[in-house]
């Protein structure tokens, strides 16, 4: 049974923590749904509104705000002229009718952690090794525009800029047009990163079950994400005899079931899903001629993933014969199991112990912008618990005390990174 959602309550906190909670309560109003969630797809009007509000929040604290060539939003504070930056942040865009915490918590916690670290340096008169930049990565979710983690993929040179800017949504609007429409199509490639930190909700149950407040991510599950197109032939659903049919939706449905059967054949170590399915012409009395579907396979074990991938392609050949269709792979977005830098994990463990927060090393099953960033600079990835493991759902919830503890943790980590404790 999904829990009723508790509103963020600044009243339970004082001082800077109350300010953070009040800002979070405000952030939850952008793209708010009537069911307690948010709906703010990348470069939508709601995304534009929250970005405008976030710019104001940063500039009020003396940060300089810039948008790079792919719409990543940066708030920079230069304490040491010309020094590279600790990049700390996450993403504000959401899935449709989703939760308030995924990404957005990490962006706001990054801002408040940066405010506190900058204030500490200004009060002490000492100087850090690195400057601090808060980042709201563009289109981490990959819902309106594929692939996911788009903004950080361009920043880390994993995606080519022009091709990404010309990517279209279902209505034929390009990334460039959508960003320009909300005034966020910038220039340049953003501030130079020396190291990176991100905090995010776990989106799973393990931390809640273990009574863990801070997850310290030591590696990510691998993911193979595919866009398949199932091609058949339009026909009359009544008058066409069954043996004459080339039913693309039948073929797609068999593929959906095959994906779940694969997960069942590797219990607990393989996750699979088909999350998006477009039927053409999607008309009541027409046998569909084309179905586009997005299928993903994930595992912490590369061998399991490779076996599952092989079996999936075996199923595809069988389905083509059985349903008398053809299945083509249109696009793919894959990432391997890779570790976060051990020195960053140890630094985070020191910070958590210093704060007396129950902590544990965890793996991330979801992709994040830090999944990209750790491939170019030392990166620390942190989790806070998700109640009942619910995410990408309006009932996503993390307790106020946990998001505030996460902010304290992130502030400690950002301070250590700025000092050059990691690199
Ligand atoms: O996990 C995902 O695929 C998304 O990028 N968070
Ligand atoms: Mn996320
Ligand atoms: Mn997400």
Measured as a percent range, the helix fraction is 25-40%
Q: What is the CATH architecture assignment of the largest domain? A: 3-Layer(aba) Sandwich
Structural class: alpha/beta
The major sheet is characterized as: 8 strands, mixed
The parts where pLDDT drops under 50 for at least 5 residues are none
Family: Belongs to the peptidase M20 family.
InterPro entries: Amidase_Cbmase, Bact_exopeptidase_dim_dom, Peptidase_M20
Binding site for Zn(2+) 2: 102, 141, 392
Keywords: Hydrolase, Metal-binding, Zinc
Describe this structure in words.
This protein is of the alpha/beta class and 423 residues long. The protein folds into two domains: 10-221 and 337-418, Aminopeptidase, CATH 3.40.630.10; 222-335, Alpha-Beta Plaits (2-Layer Sandwich), CATH 3.30.70.360. 36% of the residues lie in helices and 22% in strands. It is built from twelve helices and 14 strands. A hairpin with a 5-residue loop joins β1 and β2 (73-77). The chain starts with 14 loop residues before the first helix and ends with a helix. One manganese (II) ion binds at residues 95, 102, 141, 392.
